[in-house]
Design goal:
The chain is mainly alpha-helical. 86% of the residues lie in helices and 0% in strands. It has 16 helices and no strands. It has helices at residues 2-10, 12-38, 44-63, 68-82, 86-121, 127-152, 156-179, 185-208, 210-217, 227-254, 257-289, 294-320, 323-330, 336-364, 368-393, 397-423.
């Protein structure tokens, strides 16, 4: 038994999963440390402004991905294995069109941000902070793009080293600014949103400077952007992302702020384990992209199932965790958090395993339309059930809605995966 465990750990996929998971959790630790330091330096109003501005930057960077992450994982691995010039044409073309679309949106943000802040966000931040935030969005997009390219090429160790080295240097700079009493909202946005990505780019350039010239010589081909594939997945992903927030939105509409607080804390606990799912799917995605036959599908499905049992087991362990453990960490004030978290943990076991048919449909057969349909169904079911259940069951209504929505989503993906599998050549 022990020898089998060691054999499992020695697998290249296991090594990549371990490296990527540690890297992602280190990123979480750095984020928590930054928050811990900044709340002791900035006054509550300053920290509130910073939270809103950085929140806008992160959300926009995610939206302006435009689905290119899926395109990268789907098309880059086979091109990387071939080592052909088409690889660089694909990277340059995808980067170019994503940047063009992003610059258009960010330009509009530049123009309307002051008005939006005055009417909606109401941070009262100076124009310099608003413009710094807008520029940082583009830098976040570029860093995410390069990170995804490195992950798709299976350079997990290097990508995580560059990212966490950047985090470490940002930490040292923030500490220096703290001791010299120069920490402001502007300086933090600059360090996080511009200097951090620049450090990441510099570390990559030092090792791969020759790629700059190769990419410069490569052609730009709009066909490489795969507009239909990219935008179909992008729209589908937005339905899922919005659906995963509707439970909290509707809870806020129907119930007390205290219950929203209990539920929000439970979501944060769940999100911690979701980091493991993301780490694993990032490693599995290139392998699904390289599948050519039914035999490879079965082999990769077995491998994927084995690794996705890890977050599934963590969710099960969370469900079995005694209530007193939650009380120990969060005090009696958040007693309801234990019940909510346990209920949600069972729902997300379904979500963890649903990644198997999703990876096959998205990266092997490259049919994102199934994901669009499944995610629309997820959104409709979750929203409708939350609207019905929250007035009746209160804070315990959303976990039921989430579970049913994930079941519907997974059934659709599984049926579609079986259909596409049988259409494949042996």
């Amino acid at each position: 038994m022990i020898s089998k465990v060691f054999d499992f750990i020695k697998r290249p996929t296991s090594r990549d999963v371990i490296v990527n998971t540690i890297g992602n959790y280190l990123n979480v630790v750095f984020t928590a440390f930054f928050a811990l330091v900044l709340v002791r330096i900035l006054d509550p109003s300053q920290y509130g402004v910073l939270s809103v501005l950085l929140g806008i930057a992160y959300v926009l960077a995610n939206i302006l991905d435009f689905g290119t992450t899926a395109t990268i994982y789907s098309y880059l691995p086979p091109l990387y294995n071939q080592k052909s010039e088409d690889l660089y044409k694909f990277i340059k073309s995808t980067f170019f069109y994503q940047s063009i679309f992003s610059v258009v949106v960010i330009t509009l943000l530049f123009i309307f941000f002051p008005y939006m802040d005055k009417v909606f966000f109401k941070t009262g931040a100076p124009l310099s902070d608003l413009y710094l935030t807008s520029i940082s969005v583009l830098f976040f997009i570029w860093q995410n793009f390069i990170s995804n390219c490195m992950f798709a090429a299976k350079h997990f160790m290097k990508a995580n080293i560059y990212n966490n080295a950047s985090n470490l240097i940002k930490t040292l700079i923030i500490l220096y600014l703290m001791f010299t009493h120069n920490v402001t909202v502007s300086s933090v946005i600059f360090v996080f949103g511009i200097l951090g990505p620049l450090i990441f780019f510099l570390l990559l350039f030092i090792e791969k400077r020759e790629l700059v010239y190769i990419l410069y010589k490569s052609k730009i081909d709009k066909e490489e952007f795969r507009f239909k594939y990219t935008l179909t997945y992008f729209i589908g992903a937005q339905f899922l992302n919005l659906g995963l927030r509707m439970d909290l939105f509707l809870l806020s509409y129907f119930r007390s702020k205290a219950e929203v607080g209990f539920y929000g804390l439970s979501q944060k606990i769940i999100l911690t384990i979701i980091t493991t799912i993301i780490s694993i799917t990032q490693v599995l995605s290139p392998a699904f992209s390289n599948i050519k036959s039914k035999r490879e599908v079965i082999s990769q499905m077995k491998t994927g199932f084995l690794y996705l049992l890890i977050p599934s087991s963590l969710f099960l362990l969370l469900y079995l965790t005694p209530t007193w453990v939650f009380t120990l960490f969060f005090t009696d004030t958040f007693a309801q958090t234990a019940r909510i978290t346990k209920a949600l943990s069972l729902s997300f076991i379904i979500n963890a395993l649903s990644n198997l048919p999703l990876l096959f449909l998205l990266y092997t057969v490259k049919k994102p339309r199934y994901i669009l349909v499944a995610n629309i169904a997820f959104f409709i079911v979750l929203t409708g059930m939350c609207y019905y259940l929250i007035p009746q069951k209160g804070v315990m209504g959303p976990p039921i809605a989430v579970a049913v929505a994930f079941i519907v989503n997974t059934v659709i993906l599984t049926i579609a995966a079986f259909y596409e599998y049988h259409r494949m050549e042996d």
